[in-house]
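Trying the structure run again after the queue cleared.
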Amino acid sequence: MPSGPARGAEPPTLRPTVLKYLQGYPAELKAQAAALLARGELGAVLKRRYPDPHTVRSDPALYDYVVALKQRHLRNAPPLSKVLFDGRLQRAAQALGTHTAVSRVQGGQLKAKREIRIASLFREAPADFLRMIVVHELAHLKEREHDKAFYALCCHMAPDYHQLEFDVRLWLTALEAEPPAAPAA
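Done. Tokens:
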């Protein structure tokens, strides 16, 4: 007789795309995430681990937050002309944040303006998750490629960067797969 859950239906099978944010991780981690997801507990586990929300809700507040981190860790990096939350970013570009440099001729000189855009879903993210995505985009001011030097710079700015990146991926997985929690009455 096959063993399975007693009295009840089999746990829901996960669509392959549900774990798309975890593709590069070991099978054991994906299995643990899938088990939490199948039980509907992944979001709650992350909520307990990262209970603190941030207060950065507007574009001007985000600009101040990013510039403060930049001043603390990357004083010699080029200045930023624009930092904002972008509601189209994740859907259109399949990205959580972008760093762009736009060059324009101004008089006889070439001027570069650097922008950072953060997906608007980070307005409601835990404070550590916002910090992780900002650190990632700031690192692109110095390192263009996702290579060893890039990740070393991320870890310089946020020593727990790799754990935060993994947990952001879990959070995105939970957002897509689990229904939002009902508001407390």
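The chain has one domain: 26-177. Worth checking whether this holds up in the mutant runs.
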